[in-house]
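Much of the work behind modern protein science is quiet bookkeeping, done one molecule at a time. The protein below has been through that process, and both of its lines are reproduced in full.


***
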Amino acid sequence: MTAGVREQPRGADHPRPRPGVRLGLVGWLTGLAVLAGIGYRFWLLAHAAPPTNSDEATMGLAALHIARGEGFPIWFYGQQYMGTLEAYLAAPVFALAGGPSLLGLRLPTLALYALFLLLAWRLTLRLTGDRWFGLLVVALLALGSDRIVKNQLIAGGGYPEMNVAAAALALLTVGLATDRPGPRTPDTGQPDGRSADAGRPGWRLARWAAWGFLAGLMLWVDPLVLPYVAATGVVLVGFCRRELWGAAGALLGAAAVLGAAPLLLHSLLTGRNPLHAVLAASGANVSAAWLDRLHGGLLLGPSLGMGFCAPSQCATWQLWWALVLPLLLVIAAATAWRALRRSPASPAAAGPVSAAPGSVSPRVSAAVRLALVLAAVATLGAYTLSSAAGLTPVESSRYLSCLLISLPALLWPVWTVARHGLRPAATGRRAVGSTLARPVAVVLLAATLGTAAHATWRAAETVAATRAAEARHTELVATLRQLGVRHVRAGYWTCNRLTFASAEEVVCAVVDDNLHPGFDRYPAYRREVDGSAAPAWVAPAGSPLAAVLDERQRGTPGSLDLVTIEGWRIYLPR
């Protein structure tokens, strides 16, 4: 099947369409899909969905401290990895709005999603030249299951910005590899077979700097995207290695150091290696059975992480994507490698289409598609090898969020078969399976869209419950303010969320279910609460912590006054 996939026709009679030349029906439909994806996510934000938590509140507190000029954290509070880029993006919003809010914290992540959608569309068009396929990719990315919208909208560190950066790196790679300076034609003196951008060194150097800065920035923000940085970097080395020995390479290196400056400075000043913290967070210090890792990494993880499952669970029928994904990876890699081998090494030999302004040579397109596939394989393999895949497969499936970047490369062979069938063999006979291949490809694309749409619908069904839970939490904050409570002790998933929602008017220290001190990401809060004369206790109704506090109240009558509101219990010391 891999050898028989038909590529889009090229040549003087069938030029590859240039992005942005004509709008037409497909342009209007693509624009509507973009607006639908952004509008759906804005509707979620307006209803406080997806549900927030104390980890996101920790990023919000960092943004609040930055906006007030009280601190400029390098890492997510309480750990030595995962940069605080989201906090720096939200800080100006807080400053302009006059205070922190969940919506203000998430507006930058919504903007990052919108940028990712546009970059993915542009990348798809540059790699394939097929506007209808670009519409399909945009439609898939506009949908959003529970896991997908959590990755894209929750400002919990790393995930909203990784896909944007990786898509930008791939797009910059396409441009740099296509527009690189080459031999000049005798009659015009312009680079032979290159676009007009190749004759503007300043603009080209700016793109080299942008590539280096994004790569370094992602090294600081979250290393999960490094397979895509490495894969696109290999393509640049393959096509532009001579240029990298000069000013372009020096500028790229300097920009990469600038992007990774927070990480490098912290490592130099403290002598700590952030890689160790990343490995510990992935479960490297805890053993998991290999059968559990394979189940979480190859079966449950891809279906959840790529948006084909209901909130926090996968029905058996929704796991079909995990069974098809390895086949898609093999077919996409094989077709890209075949196109790479068959494409002319010289751009001038590719004909007038490759030399047209804005066009991408078949060789560059194939190389970048292959890079995206190999990056997806590396991401999937690294996740499967980690203990997190076996220990917490539902929650840790977020580690596979970068696989969405590879969708254009994964689905392109299926799309070409759905539109054109299999290429006849050189003998003139029909390729084996050509009659069956086209309807199978159509069914596969329809099933992909249908399953993702169903998961999106299931995620939208939870919005009412999420909004109600947020309203109960808002009532909790208002009640504490009315009671004059300034210091409280609560569980981990209550503390920082409460402190952020109250803009630090209520300061919380973490306790476990046995009332012992817990993990405080921001130690200053514990010091302040410990210095308080009589801090209150807060616990969700029906929680183990509430049961322990109720038992304490029964054991020493009169020691605590209980205030109850819907969903919460507040214990006030007398």
Remarks:
- Strands lie at 487-490, 507-510, 536-540, 560-565, 568-573.
- The longest strand covers residues 560-565.
